[in-house]
Amino acid sequence: MVESIVTVVLEVAKCLGRPTERQLSFVRNYRSNFENLKTELEKLKDDGASMQHGVDEGRRKGEEIEKNVEKWLASVNNIITEAEKFTGDADKANKRCFMGLCPNLKTRHRLSKEAVRQQKAIVELGEAGRFDRLSYRKALEDIRLISNKDYEAFESRSSTLNNVLRALQDPDVNMVGIYGMGGIGKTTLAKEVAIQFGRDQFFDQVIFVEVPHIPDIRKIQGEIADKLGLIFFEETESGRARSLYNRLKG
Predict the structure, then answer these.
(1) pTM across the whole model
(2) How far apart are CA 55 and CA 8, in angstroms?
(3) Per-residue pLDDT tens over the stretch 4-24
(4) Which of 75, 90, 175, 191 has the fewest CB atoms within 10 Å distance of its CB?
């Protein structure tokens, strides 16, 4: 009886024009619109849960989560809360009018139209949740470059420091050497150079690595990689060298 009345109304609407027919189709498709909404809502819940698992794994590894991923998950939680509250109120559309012989068409129209709107928003949000990566390995901060308590800025050392700083800012200079007897503070001076360049942000990144008289190449490569947030997949020193070169070259 109820569906017959809705069908008759829709047939009349066809004679009145497409806008009216479209509006009344919300009443006719009330149930299917809500079923579609619930289906897409469950899909989004599954996608959100899967994404959250990936985010949790990244955090366990000490990685930083991409900002767009965090924003997407927040949007997912918000839209799920909104949709669940809305579908929970859907029973309002079952109110009867005309002595209980037909559904409340006005309420059905409003809720059905909102169901379509929310379904569209959920589908669009789901499609926006395709990311190349969820997290990234943050470059480690070298605590040795935060402060240099051993450095004393007496006149001769300040002059040498300024000369080194100027030389490193020369685009034609690729390497600067600091020479002197053991124990006079060459390493301390080099560390101060790194601190000042890092503080002034003259370079995109400053890496400080101490190289002993007998160098351990793999250890040095590992220290540099840690500070770049780089993970090696190569086993040989030459392969790691190429990987570092490509990373530094950008």
Answers:
(1) 0.57
(2) 53
(3) 444 544 454 444 445 556 677
(4) 175
